[in-house]
Amino acid sequence: MDKPSFIKKAFRRFVNVTLDGLFIPRKIAFNGTRWSLRVPQLRPPRYNLFFVGATNRPQVLDEAVTRPGRFGRTIVFRMPTRDARKDIADLYFNKKAHDPDLDTPSRRDEFARITDGYSPAMIEQALSLALMYAFEDGRSYFAWHDLREAMGNIESGLAEPVEYSERDKVAVARHELGHAVASRFFEPEKSSVRLSIRMRSGSLGHHYNIEKEEQFVHFRSQTAGRLRGGLGALAAERVFYGENSSGVSMDLIQCTSLACHMVGVWGMGPDPMDPGLSRKAANIGEYLISRVEEIGSSPLGPGSVNGAVLHGSSRRVVAQVMGAAFIDDWRLMYANREAIDLAAEALMAQGELVGDEVDGVLESVGLRPPDSSTPYPEDALLIPPPRDEDEERERVRMLDSA
Fold it and tell me: What is the pLDDT of residue 49?
């Protein structure tokens, strides 16, 4: 019996006993009507209570709340699938004035494809924003370009009204195309959704791709392809400029974390390469490991998977995995220098490419895989380790005697 019920029962008993002690009758009757002078007996309710709760953070709920008999059943609502997004789009398109071209099956399929990860509320917001942009332009209905702009603002924030210099514009275009080209060759199960050189939320550009079909199991080859997609921009800058910019910082942080998980969590091991090339890859990879992940994650701290891997014997394997990805990217970018610059011209003219437009540009410039004539990047410039004092004295003695 819980505490409130016990208190009520005790109070009822106390009142009835007190009234009995005062010799007050239990009932009185008058003119055929009876009234009870005692607190009535508690009876269980004749109805059931059904409690429903909702949260987007179930992991923080206390076990006392989620155990059977309380909130014992959990129902998960996932983001809508592609077919579901198409149905949701039909509902909201019918409520807003739009270009009839958006009603064609191909356009609806494309909209459902590129809205991967959108909730119903986000789809409605995209259409509402698109209609608002059309009104600002003096039109009574929105078109595809309004919808593209609205989706970009929802995904990455409002485009900032800045003008790049010609040098910066070319550099950003080559950087983002490095991601897009690497993804096209090394992530065949994915397709590009957005390729942009417009500044949004402080980012100078943006490349975003999604899986063609929803997958729940990812093998090493797919994860290695994702790693190459992340390092593609760095490789492109090294090919075109012989050096890289500061814009690769987040790429290196994410790729370092991914390589650490490949080696230290998922047991995927190093890339299969001959010993000489493997040593070259490991030396290059040593310079690609982000120190943000290494220093920011102490191996003794809670949940510091990356720090534990990088401070242990697996560090060299992580370096080899990252270096191998860079070598593949570098050779791909080197073989497609002219094609990348052709694509950069189209990207700079548009500022932003969405959906099929990205694939259309990449298909039109004649990209090709590297072949046996494609060179390899130069070896990493390794700094000699500090000499032991005895070794240094012996070296000086031999120089003097010579």
Answer: 74
Domains, the chain, ordered by start: 3-49 (no CATH), 82-156 (1.10.8.60), 166-364 (1.20.58.760)
Tokens of 10: 């005790």
Of 40, 37, 41, 11, give the one whose Cα is nearest residue 26: 37
Sign of CA dihedral 358, 360, 365, 368: positive
pLDDT on residue 301: 46
- The runs of H, that is alpha helices, within 52-196 are 63-66, 82-93, 105-114, 120-136, 144-156, 166-186
Q: What's this model's pTM, rounded to 2 decimal places?
A: 0.77
Q: Give the Cα separation of 239 and 203 in Å (integer).
A: 22
- Residue pLDDT, tens place only, 289-303: 998 776 654 444 444
The answer to whether residue 19 scores a pLDDT higher than 80 is no
Q: Are 65 and 85 in contact (CB under 8 A)?
A: no
